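Hi R.,

Here are the chain sequences for the assembly we discussed:
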Amino acid sequence: EAQVTQNPRYLITVTGKKLTVTCSQNMNHEYMSWYRQDPGLGLRQIYYSMNVEVTDKGDVPEGYKVSRKEKRNFPLILESPSPNQTSLYFCASKRQGVYEQYFGPGTRLTVT
Amino acid sequence: EDQVTQSPEALRLQEGESSSLNCSYTVSGLRGLFWYRQDPGKGPEFLFTLYSAGEEKEKERLKATLTKKESFLHITAPKPEDSATYLCAVQGTGTASKLTFGTGTRLQVTL
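And here is the predicted structure of the full complex:
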Protein backbone atom coordinates (compact mmCIF):
# COMPACT_ATOMS: atom_id res chain seq x y z
CA GLU A 1 0.00 0.00 0.00
CA ALA A 2 1.33 3.42 -1.00
CA GLN A 3 1.70 5.51 2.10
CA VAL A 4 3.55 8.06 4.17
CA THR A 5 4.29 6.91 7.70
CA GLN A 6 5.32 8.94 10.73
CA ASN A 7 6.65 7.91 14.11
CA PRO A 8 5.86 8.44 16.85
CA ARG A 9 2.20 9.38 16.49
CA TYR A 10 2.08 10.97 19.92
CA LEU A 11 4.92 12.41 21.98
CA ILE A 12 5.05 14.29 25.25
CA THR A 13 8.46 15.67 26.17
CA VAL A 14 10.13 18.36 28.25
CA THR A 15 11.79 21.59 27.22
CA GLY A 16 15.30 21.10 25.88
CA LYS A 17 15.25 17.34 25.37
CA LYS A 18 16.29 16.59 21.80
CA LEU A 19 13.85 14.55 19.75
CA THR A 20 13.41 13.22 16.23
CA VAL A 21 10.18 12.56 14.37
CA THR A 22 10.63 10.12 11.51
CA CYS A 23 8.89 10.22 8.16
CA SER A 24 9.07 7.52 5.51
CA GLN A 25 7.36 7.08 2.15
CA ASN A 26 7.24 3.99 -0.06
CA MET A 27 6.26 5.70 -3.33
CA ASN A 28 9.75 6.67 -4.51
CA HIS A 29 8.76 10.33 -4.34
CA GLU A 30 11.48 12.92 -4.86
CA TYR A 31 9.81 15.73 -2.91
CA MET A 32 9.14 15.58 0.82
CA SER A 33 8.01 18.27 3.22
CA TRP A 34 7.15 18.95 6.85
CA TYR A 35 4.19 21.05 8.01
CA ARG A 36 2.87 22.04 11.38
CA GLN A 37 -0.82 22.61 12.05
CA ASP A 38 -2.01 25.00 14.75
CA PRO A 39 -5.56 26.14 15.53
CA GLY A 40 -6.45 29.30 13.64
CA LEU A 41 -3.20 29.24 11.64
CA GLY A 42 -3.69 26.31 9.32
CA LEU A 43 -0.88 24.18 7.97
CA ARG A 44 2.47 25.94 7.61
CA GLN A 45 5.53 24.56 5.91
CA ILE A 46 8.64 24.02 8.06
CA TYR A 47 11.19 22.49 5.69
CA TYR A 48 11.15 20.73 2.36
CA SER A 49 13.42 18.56 0.26
CA MET A 50 13.46 18.34 -3.52
CA ASN A 51 15.61 15.21 -3.48
CA VAL A 52 18.37 13.40 -1.58
CA GLU A 53 20.79 15.84 0.08
CA VAL A 54 18.71 18.85 -1.11
CA THR A 55 16.77 20.63 1.63
CA ASP A 56 15.50 24.18 2.15
CA LYS A 57 13.56 26.28 4.64
CA GLY A 58 9.84 26.79 4.51
CA ASP A 59 7.88 29.50 6.29
CA VAL A 60 8.58 28.52 9.91
CA PRO A 61 11.98 26.78 10.10
CA GLU A 62 13.24 28.26 13.39
CA GLY A 63 14.02 25.58 15.98
CA TYR A 64 13.93 22.69 13.51
CA LYS A 65 16.45 20.72 11.48
CA VAL A 66 16.02 18.14 8.75
CA SER A 67 18.17 15.76 6.75
CA ARG A 68 17.61 13.75 3.57
CA LYS A 69 20.21 11.02 3.33
CA GLU A 70 17.89 8.51 1.69
CA LYS A 71 15.09 9.09 -0.76
CA ARG A 72 12.43 7.43 1.37
CA ASN A 73 13.21 9.11 4.72
CA PHE A 74 12.95 12.71 5.87
CA PRO A 75 13.34 13.05 9.65
CA LEU A 76 12.44 16.22 11.56
CA ILE A 77 14.81 17.08 14.40
CA LEU A 78 14.07 19.36 17.32
CA GLU A 79 17.42 19.88 19.03
CA SER A 80 16.05 21.88 21.98
CA PRO A 81 12.26 21.77 21.95
CA SER A 82 10.30 24.61 23.51
CA PRO A 83 6.62 24.85 24.49
CA ASN A 84 5.82 26.94 21.39
CA GLN A 85 6.67 23.88 19.29
CA THR A 86 3.69 22.05 20.74
CA SER A 87 1.72 21.29 17.61
CA LEU A 88 0.43 18.67 15.18
CA TYR A 89 3.09 17.79 12.61
CA PHE A 90 2.54 16.33 9.15
CA CYS A 91 4.97 14.93 6.64
CA ALA A 92 4.03 15.00 2.96
CA SER A 93 5.52 13.71 -0.26
CA LYS A 94 4.96 13.94 -3.98
CA ARG A 95 6.45 12.87 -7.26
CA GLN A 96 8.48 15.45 -9.18
CA GLY A 97 6.49 16.97 -12.01
CA VAL A 98 3.06 16.56 -10.41
CA TYR A 99 1.39 18.86 -7.92
CA GLU A 100 -0.59 16.60 -5.59
CA GLN A 101 1.02 16.02 -2.19
CA TYR A 102 0.18 13.04 0.01
CA PHE A 103 0.22 13.42 3.76
CA GLY A 104 1.15 11.16 6.63
CA PRO A 105 -1.13 10.52 9.62
CA GLY A 106 0.42 13.20 11.81
CA THR A 107 2.46 13.40 15.01
CA ARG A 108 0.98 15.21 17.97
CA LEU A 109 3.82 16.75 19.98
CA THR A 110 3.47 18.31 23.41
CA VAL A 111 6.43 20.12 24.95
CA THR A 112 6.08 20.96 28.65
CA GLU B 1 2.85 36.46 -0.37
CA ASP B 2 0.25 33.83 -1.18
CA GLN B 3 -2.91 33.92 0.95
CA VAL B 4 -5.93 31.66 1.32
CA THR B 5 -9.12 32.49 3.21
CA GLN B 6 -11.87 29.94 3.73
CA SER B 7 -15.45 30.56 4.76
CA PRO B 8 -17.45 29.74 6.69
CA GLU B 9 -15.28 28.47 9.54
CA ALA B 10 -17.94 25.96 10.46
CA LEU B 11 -21.07 24.69 8.75
CA ARG B 12 -23.79 22.44 10.03
CA LEU B 13 -26.10 20.82 7.50
CA GLN B 14 -28.87 18.32 7.66
CA GLU B 15 -28.53 15.21 5.56
CA GLY B 16 -29.57 16.05 2.01
CA GLU B 17 -29.17 19.82 2.46
CA SER B 18 -26.81 21.02 -0.28
CA SER B 19 -24.39 23.89 0.28
CA SER B 20 -21.08 25.41 -0.82
CA LEU B 21 -17.76 26.12 0.86
CA ASN B 22 -15.73 29.11 -0.27
CA CYS B 23 -11.99 29.52 -0.76
CA SER B 24 -10.68 32.97 -1.69
CA TYR B 25 -7.06 33.24 -2.70
CA THR B 26 -4.33 35.58 -3.79
CA VAL B 27 -1.27 34.06 -5.42
CA SER B 28 1.53 35.20 -7.68
CA GLY B 29 0.90 32.89 -10.61
CA LEU B 30 -1.34 29.93 -9.84
CA ARG B 31 0.14 26.51 -10.44
CA GLY B 32 -2.70 24.70 -8.75
CA LEU B 33 -5.52 25.01 -6.23
CA PHE B 34 -6.08 21.96 -4.07
CA TRP B 35 -8.91 20.68 -1.93
CA TYR B 36 -8.20 18.26 0.89
CA ARG B 37 -10.43 16.52 3.41
CA GLN B 38 -9.19 16.07 6.96
CA ASP B 39 -10.83 13.80 9.51
CA PRO B 40 -10.12 14.28 13.22
CA GLY B 41 -6.72 12.87 14.17
CA LYS B 42 -5.74 12.12 10.58
CA GLY B 43 -3.68 13.66 7.83
CA PRO B 44 -5.22 15.65 4.97
CA GLU B 45 -6.59 13.44 2.21
CA PHE B 46 -6.27 14.74 -1.32
CA LEU B 47 -9.56 15.44 -3.17
CA PHE B 48 -9.04 17.69 -6.19
CA THR B 49 -6.57 19.82 -8.10
CA LEU B 50 -7.78 22.75 -10.22
CA TYR B 51 -5.35 24.48 -12.54
CA SER B 52 -7.17 27.29 -14.34
CA ALA B 53 -10.27 29.47 -14.10
CA GLY B 54 -13.38 27.76 -15.39
CA GLU B 55 -12.19 24.28 -14.49
CA GLU B 56 -14.48 21.93 -12.59
CA LYS B 57 -13.87 18.54 -10.95
CA GLU B 58 -16.38 16.11 -9.45
CA LYS B 59 -16.20 13.19 -7.09
CA GLU B 60 -19.33 11.57 -5.73
CA ARG B 61 -21.27 14.32 -3.93
CA LEU B 62 -18.47 16.89 -4.22
CA LYS B 63 -17.84 19.35 -7.03
CA ALA B 64 -15.01 21.88 -7.06
CA THR B 65 -14.99 24.97 -9.26
CA LEU B 66 -12.41 27.68 -9.84
CA THR B 67 -12.43 31.35 -10.80
CA LYS B 68 -9.52 33.78 -10.89
CA LYS B 69 -10.12 34.79 -7.27
CA GLU B 70 -11.92 31.94 -5.56
CA SER B 71 -12.88 28.32 -5.55
CA PHE B 72 -16.06 26.67 -4.36
CA LEU B 73 -16.58 23.19 -3.05
CA HIS B 74 -20.21 22.29 -3.68
CA ILE B 75 -21.66 19.48 -1.61
CA THR B 76 -24.82 17.97 -3.04
CA ALA B 77 -27.19 15.99 -0.80
CA PRO B 78 -24.54 15.44 1.90
CA LYS B 79 -24.47 12.40 4.16
CA PRO B 80 -23.16 12.16 7.74
CA GLU B 81 -19.97 10.51 6.42
CA ASP B 82 -19.14 13.77 4.62
CA SER B 83 -18.55 15.37 8.03
CA ALA B 84 -14.91 16.54 8.13
CA THR B 85 -12.76 19.63 7.83
CA TYR B 86 -12.22 20.69 4.23
CA LEU B 87 -8.94 22.44 3.49
CA CYS B 88 -8.09 24.60 0.51
CA ALA B 89 -4.50 25.24 -0.56
CA VAL B 90 -2.69 26.98 -3.40
CA GLN B 91 0.68 26.57 -4.99
CA GLY B 92 2.13 29.58 -6.75
CA THR B 93 4.90 29.83 -9.27
CA GLY B 94 8.38 30.08 -7.85
CA THR B 95 7.43 28.54 -4.49
CA ALA B 96 9.21 25.19 -4.91
CA SER B 97 6.05 23.14 -4.42
CA LYS B 98 5.09 24.86 -1.16
CA LEU B 99 1.39 24.70 -0.39
CA THR B 100 -0.26 27.69 1.30
CA PHE B 101 -3.29 26.48 3.24
CA GLY B 102 -6.43 28.12 4.50
CA THR B 103 -7.64 27.35 8.01
CA GLY B 104 -10.41 25.10 6.77
CA THR B 105 -14.18 24.74 6.99
CA ARG B 106 -15.43 22.29 9.60
CA LEU B 107 -18.49 20.56 8.15
CA GLN B 108 -20.97 18.62 10.24
CA VAL B 109 -23.80 16.73 8.56
CA THR B 110 -26.58 15.51 10.83
CA LEU B 111 -29.42 13.06 10.27
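The longest strand of chain A covers residues 42-51. Chain A has a mean pLDDT of 95.

Let me know if anything looks off.

Best,
T.
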